[in-house]
Amino acid sequence: MTDAPASKRAVRAAFDRAAAAYDSVAHVQRSACDRLFALGTPHLSTAARVVDAGCGTGYALPGLRQRFPDAELCAVDFAPAMLARLPAGLAHPLCADLEQLPVADACVDLLWSSYALQWCAPRRALADIARVLRPGGQVWLATLGPGTLFELRDAFAAVDDAEHVLRFQPPEVVEDAAESAGLRLLASERDTLQAWAPDLRRLLHDIKTLGAHQTGATRRPLRKTDLARLTAAYEAYRTPDGLPASYDTLWLVAEKP
User: Fold this and answer.
1) Could you give the number of structural domains in the chain?
2) What is the mean pLDDT of residues 119-124?
3) pLDDT of 205-252, one tens digit each?
4) Pick from 71, 70, 82, 68: nearest CA to 29
5) Is the pTM of this model over 0.90?
6) What DSSP string runs through 9-22?
7) pLDDT interval class at 167 (50, 70, 90)
């Protein structure tokens, strides 16, 4: 499986709608960025040009500026409403697709991308990332894996046979795509991050607010009986912290030889 999991037009529209409230629920997304900084920082000390590809509302930008104070910093996202919420003056905004970066060949020292690759075809995206990196340049990457929101997928199985939850690429596909693009893997980690909600209604609201609810499929609206079955099935996952939403995450650092 190498294709993107959902229509780019649908994903862009979802993130445009999500932009205003995104930061209020993006706890897992911030944790993923913090873990990516921890994994990548030992591998690169200086950079003249840094690109945050899939920057969202710009959470990673202050950390990138702190680590690379003299770098030219570019923030790329394909959702204009996300770019509109970037911290003023911190980076050059650019509305573009991770699979087709409007950046010259071999001019980037660090391409950072957290929770964006899962919306792309990884072979196309990583080939373009390799194109823009200078020799010795690195990509620091976090992306979602197939166990993401498995609780919701399993609970929906009690409702019908439709595909309600996206199935993202397994880590071996992403790593193989990086190697096929000519990148040398330096480090990788895989872990599950979790968000929590007091009930199913709030959990579904938070997922929608993150823009992460697109499947590309057309489905009928849930009836009251469907929602009751879904709620009962999800309750099997309840813990003292509430209902969990799991984000199966791969962190990867790779270098262009």
Assistant:
1) 1
2) 95
3) 999 888 765 544 546 677 889 999 999 999 999 999 999 999 999 999
4) 82
5) yes
6) HHHHHHHHHHTTTG
7) confident
Which pLDDT score, from 0 to 100, does residue 3 have?
A: 61
The type of residue at 188 is S
Please report the DSSP string for 190-247 in residue order. Answer: EEEEEEEESSHHHHHHHHHHTT----S---PPPPHHHHHHHHHHHGGG-BTTBEEEEE
Please report whether residue 200 resides in a domain: no
Q: In the sheet that 184-197 helps form, which strands lie side by side, from edge to edge?
A: 92-95, 72-77, 49-53, 108-114, 133-144, 243-255, 184-197
Calculate the alpha carbon distances from 156 to 152, 159, 213 in Å.
6, 5, 13
Domain span holding position 62: 8-148+166-195+247-255
Report which of 238, 246, 254 is spatially closest to residue 180, judged by C-alpha positions.
Answer: 254
CA separation, residue 107 to residues 77, 100, 178, 184 (Å): 19, 15, 18, 18
